[in-house]
Amino acid sequence: MENNLWIGLSGKKCSGKSFFANALASQFGLGIVRFGDFVRHLADLEKIEETVENLQELGQKKFDEMGANLFLNSAVEWAVGDITSRIIFDGVRHIATWDAIKSINRKGTSLLFYVDVEESERLRRWNLRSSTSLIKNQLANVDKHPVEKGSEELKKISNAILDGALLPEKNISLINHLLKID
Q1: What pLDDT score was predicted for residue 133?
Q2: Can you give the residue ranges of every domain in the chain?
Q3: Strand order in 5-10's β-sheet?
Q4: Quick one: fold of 5-171?
């Protein structure tokens, strides 16, 4: 596992994490583990309606029940089949998950990026992609859920903060620099 490259993406809802995940996966040949898609899969299995609130509650419940390592391993197995040497983790929400990622990949390179964007842009993106429109105070309520609060702590320990308002290519040079790639 010495040449492993694992990249974690954290940030608030609609900050651009998935957009960056797609660009980084293409740029660096990474498999993608999307924690949000994994929770949606669990909701389907349990026949739970996929509302934001239900998904947040289910994700937190499963994380609490399984613990970070089992939750991580289950998501990886579901998304990419098994641990591979090059993975991007889209939607890291807990420091314990990031610690588990680093622990499993202890001989490789693990980088955490926080994707940040203005609240007005997040709200615009939410209303473009969701069947349920939100106003500013409703988005703030989504952010208050315990599963979302972990991203603020992850921001403090991230290797870099990416500007979610820019095209991913504009941030790739920062990532290349951190990886010491020219």
Answers
A1: 67
A2: 5-171
A3: 31-34, 86-90, 5-10, 109-116, 160-163
A4: Rossmann fold (3.40.50)
